[in-house]
Amino acid sequence: MDLTPLAVSLAIGLGAIGPGIGVGLIGYKAMEAMGRNPDAIGTMSLWMIIGMAFAEAIAIYALVVAFTLFGKVH
Amino acid sequence: MELHVPDIKPEVLVTFGTLAVTNTLLTSFIAVILLLVGAIALTRKMQLIPGRRQMAIEIVIQGLLSLCEQTGGQAARTYFPLVATLFLYILVANWIGVVPGVGSFHIEGPNHTEITPLRGANSDLSMTLAMALLVFLFVQFTALKAGPKAYIMKFLWPPFIGQLELISELVRPISLSMRLFGNIVAGFILVEVALQLVPAGIPIIALFFELFVGVIQALIFAILAVAFLTLAAASHGGGAEHGEASESHEH
User: Which residues of A touch B185 (CB under 8 A)?
Assistant: First the structure.
């Protein structure tokens, strides 16, 4: 019984949970900080995007694993 | 319905002996030529009070320089050439991958195969790994120049933390390369699959998102390069540059 298709789905499915929560937390705190300090919104937006890219990188690692396995299935 | 999902490995177009020219290599040549032509054209007849062309490129360079200083302090200006080159090259390479036709244009090859002659340069793990290894080598050189004994001791003592530091150091080029590669190839595959599943509307939205992702990933690569180099130059991570040191401990 070949479980590789299941592995592909689980790789990206489970791998996106953590980064999803992480990106959400970054956004949450960034929104809060922007509300308290509207003058610094420009600086904060840039660093929020950068922080989100770091957190999202983990999901991208999981995606690459999924793509690699997908290449083996087909 | 046959869904054609492009492979994450790029196609080899020609082989000169052991050098395999892939479609990503071709695109990276085009990016380099574009950068060279742009550099020559925009710095022709440089004046102290810049004309419009010179002002455009000066804005970009000044922005990069200020970003460099913001991340690494005044000493980071020495790394500016490497970091700015990385940023500009990754940016141009990503944006060429967004041009309609790159990645989706097929021509009929021998034996009725379909060849894609062009593909975004950073959707090749070899390309991103080469750049990440370049940064890695530069970081090691800088760290060893700053204090060889202290740097080597950092990996040997304390007994378990030292080995953890060594692993963390070795994983950095992998994480750098995978981040850029994963983002670009994910966007590329998304556009390709969307073109086959929902040709109305979704591909163009994904393409615009790819533009944005291209800029952000180039920025991230450059910022991480500056951060790593600054940390390496400061003797074993001592005086933290107002919170930027925490950035380096992400994996």
Answer: 64, 67
ipTM score here?
0.84
Identify whether the C-beta of residue A66 lies closer than 8 Å to the C-beta of residue A10.
no
Closest CA of chain B from A72, distance in Å: 10
**Of B139, B36, B21, B135, which Cα lies nearest the Cα of B88?**
B36
pTM for the structure as a whole: 0.86
Among the listed residues A53, A48, A66, the one whose alpha carbon sits nearest the alpha carbon of residue B185: A66
User: B181-198, pLDDT tens digit by residue?
Assistant: 999 999 999 998 898 888
Domains and CATH numbers, chain A: 9-73 (1.20.20.10)
H/E segment holding residue B114: strand B114-115
List of chain B residues whose C-beta atoms are within 8 Å of the C-beta of residue A56: 183
Residue ranges covered by each domain of chain B? 74-101+123-251
